[in-house]
User: What shape does this take?
Amino acid sequence: MTETKPFAGKLALVTGASKGIGAATARALAAAGAHVVLTARDVKGLEEVEDAIHAAGGTSTIAPVDLTEADGVARLATALRGRWDALDFLVISAAYLPTLTPVTQIEPKQFNQALTINVLATQALLANFDAMLKRAEAGRVIGLTSSVGAAPRAYWSAYGSSKAAFDNLLESYAAEVEKIGNVRVAIVDPGATRTAMRAKAYPGEDPQTVKPADEVAESIVKLLQDDFETAHRVRLG
Assistant: This one.
């Protein structure tokens, strides 16, 4: 480990890495020396992030995956195990925001997609990468959540309920692995951030009034350098 490249020799997997907080976090991890596996459905977006990483002197690997496919995460894990023994960082940034609507008018297809990406895929990621995380010197899982998971809000029920389940999965996993190894889990609520998802939820908002995704990424990199307690929760302003 060096002062300028604290994550040299580390392997990171970032979901939702084609845009927003996931892309910014992938770039920041690569700048800190980690080799970053970029995964999302948007191949073009992944290629743009990889180009930016390589232009800055970092290294990465593209691994396009559709988290709505039943075996998508399992295939991703098989591919990674074929090249690497351990996974140091798993950053779960991928998420789906259904249309904001009253509980009585939730669109079933969108709700199902939110549960699939935000909940089922999260469980699959933890299940399939558990062994690789445990083989790391200090495996770390970072889950990007939302305040509506803990504090229900009108019209946000489809997304909020999926994030409540997301938080529960991560906290349960944290408790299960705490005493048997060095894997630690942190749940990060980024707060208002300049992303496409934020623009969808608040179409009339001036994006310049909220922080850029790079600020969240910097906070995640700093967090990963700290020896935090498991199930640590962070709320960014």
Q: What stands out?
A: The chain has one domain: 11-235.
